[in-house]
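Weekend entry, working from home. Most of the wet-lab plans are on hold until the incubator is repaired, so I used the time to fold the two sequences that have been sitting in the queue since the last round of cloning. Logging both here for the record. First:
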Amino acid sequence: MKHLIAALVLTTSANAFAQETPAQESRQDLRKRTHGMTWEMSSSNTKLKNKDTNAESETTSTETKFGYLYNFGRFELGGAFSSATDKNEDTGDKTTAGTFELIGQVNIIKNEPGEDLIPYAALSLGSLVMESGTVEAKGSTASLGFGLKWFPLSEIFALKAELGAGSATIKDDNSDVELEVKASYFNVGWAFYF
């Protein structure tokens, strides 16, 4: 009789445990994240130094960036186009700029369905065209940033934030003045994967 009661208690306990454990959703059933479309807004404060005269000025910039990334899981490769408006705080002059960048991101956690928080490091190299009332300049850019993608509602929509620093070398076509730009940035935006 003792063995019958023990078997009944063990069977009842095992059935109760099985009912309490929820079924795991298979990652194969989730939508893939192969292609990523991104949008970001940026605000930065830049210090500009003229190599010829050692004059310095401060600029506030707002930037909108649209990009595409191909997701390999541990890393993502793609490109982006950005448009910026800069205001020189010393003179009040406004400058517009357009940048095309090649972007590489290394995901600390593999960007795959089922992962909701993806920290990453990003490197970008780009080409810049800048125009204002007195300046027509071209140059190259480079930046390094660290960010986080958060998929709060679904497997395909992410909110993202990135903090980093960058530099650019710019040459004015009208005056042959060469500028060196260093900036820090904080971007927020979203990404849509399909």
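Second, folded right after the first finished:
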Amino acid sequence: MNLTYLFFQRINLFSIWFLVTFGILVNISASSVQGLNQFNDNFYFIKRHMAGVLIGVLIFNIGKKINFYSYSRLINFSIVFVTSALFFVLTYGIVRGGSRRWVDLGAINFQPSELAKPIIILWVAYQLTNMDTKFNNFFYLRRAMFLPVICCFFIYLQPDYGTTITIFGILLSQIVFSKIDFKYPVGILSLSIIPLYFLAISGSYRFNRITTWLDRDCDLGIDLLGSCFQLNQSRIAISSGGMFGLGPGTSRARWGMLPNSHTDFIASI
């Protein structure tokens, strides 16, 4: 085996296990108080996190043993499965925080949109690397994009706008770096500007986020108990720790001052 390949493979594996381990430790620190307050269990969120990690490790090891070329035989089934799962979520999924994104599997909640990301990447890559001169670029582009666009539409209806835009951006990047004529991704991006604009202003909370950022309300100390509350509390959490923090498990903000501190604002803790 090529030594360079083996070296980078080891680096890659070490990076994965380091990030997983670090994530577990940070999650314990950030979520224990909220778990105690909401569920009378310090380790409620970390148990769910660990269940997801164990499932991820299982899938990772199964995936390692599958021959690379076998993925081409599995990808058709996988894209149909994930499209069906996303439709299932819209009809039978559980609602949390105003969004229907999860399927209740008992011990854990399954979020099909997270599975959709790697499946869509593999599907589009498979379609765009199997092009020949029989058909024009538009034929292969249409074949590669049809089901992923349906998936994005289902995710948009949940609603999960962040994931929708993320997947759309990945799709566009794959097209740019494929053999497809460059005019197609440019055309897609140009046609997307108007829908993205209406998407941004269609929800009041999204529009408020944009205007708050553009007007620099949080920097000016405006509406600190309203739209700027979460951001302001995260800044206080960071500043109270200084350059190197207060140490593991000693953040003051995790005691209820920073809502949902174990989610997107976990870096503040």
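Plan for Monday: verify the second prediction. Residues 68-202 form one domain.
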